[in-house]
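Changelog-adjacent note: as of this version, every example in the card shows the full chain rather than a window. The one below runs 454 residues end to end.
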Amino acid sequence: MHLPDLRVRLRAPRTALLHRRPDTGRSPWRALRHPAMRWWTGANAVSSTGTWMQMTVQNLLVLQITGSPAATGLSLAVQAAPGLLLGLAGGAVVDRWPRKVVVATSQTVLGVVGLTTAALVGLDLLTLPLLLALSALTGVVATIDGPATALLGNDLVPVDDVPSAIGIGSVVNSAGRLVGVALAGAALAVAGPAPAYLVNGCSFLMVAAVVPFLRLHRPAAAAPADAPAPGRAALQEDAGQEHPREENPAPTGGLRYFCGRPRLVALLVVTAVSAVLGRNYTLTLTVLVTGALAGSAQDFATVASVLAVGGIVGAFLAGRLRRPSVRLVTALAAAGAALQVAAGLSPTLLVLVVVVAPMAVLESLSDTAGATVLQTDPPPAMRGRVLGVWRSASTAWALAGPPLLGLLMEVVGPRATLVGGGLAVLAVVAAGALHQRRSAARRHARARELALAA
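Full-length structure tokens:
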């Protein structure tokens, strides 16, 4: 062997190490490898900031106009009601039309609503009827925009990167909340609520302008034969084009499909019970900290900060998931419920803070895993309607949960409410596991009988 050849061979391993690309298979940021996802994330960062600016000032604006807390609650109900009543129809629209067209249109309409509200506030022409009409219009458009934007973001990456995309979205929303609330406070101090609506309207128009330039993902190869059903459904998409859709998708078709999928029903039940009896921490922990633990508003601010940081950490960890299952979501819900029981029994504020941190991490993990299953399990032509079913259901428990928890805390106190809610979630998870085991035993016995008969 010549000496130069030996030098080349000795250098080769070191060169390979220097130029080896990092393994991003489990990186929480792996979705950002795709240029379209980077553009989409940047646009959503701006949009999230604008949304939280508007949400921060909206209640104050209603109070300034009417001086009535009841009117403030009415404006929130008017905006939420379409999600409860029109979720199925909104999902059908998402399945019927090209997704990029739907998102660009809905974002443009929301942008116009925001700019119109800013102009009316700036000219001192905004009245309660006009505000309620604009809130209702926002709610109607959101029934289409919500599932459309979620699914478009998933279309930009391969199915294995969907948890990463959802986790990045959670981080962006959390960061947008921090920045948006701070900017809203500064804007209110200087110029009142109008700038918040102006920024939000412009942020929607920015997203609409980015959408036409996004390139959907085209899988390199078909899924292997033993791949899980959600992955196979997603990988069969021709992401260089819009997904194939039915000619006349009926809104009720999504409900029938949803009810015919036991795993989606199980996901709905576990999430609903957890949301109603467990996850309204801003309500239950406020009462626990300021009541049973005799803490101050500053003490609750500390707990809220821990919840926010835990949510961000959970979103990072969730981004490392590949193809989560309903079983994983159920296990995370059970672990979170056990911690909720511990939170209800916390003797001091310090113990509560220690318990709350992993609670927030598990909640964020569970949310991302559940969203991934929900958005990848159905075939592409059904995903909009399935998300429409979910939006109607989630709006129902979002409206029912706080009053129910408030009533429970009035009757039995915050500790018993937290402990009882956690135990209820654990009972539902245990009942589901028992039902699944019995169903599997029956299927096995039936298959054995058929084999013996053959």
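Structural remarks: The chain has a mean pLDDT of 82.
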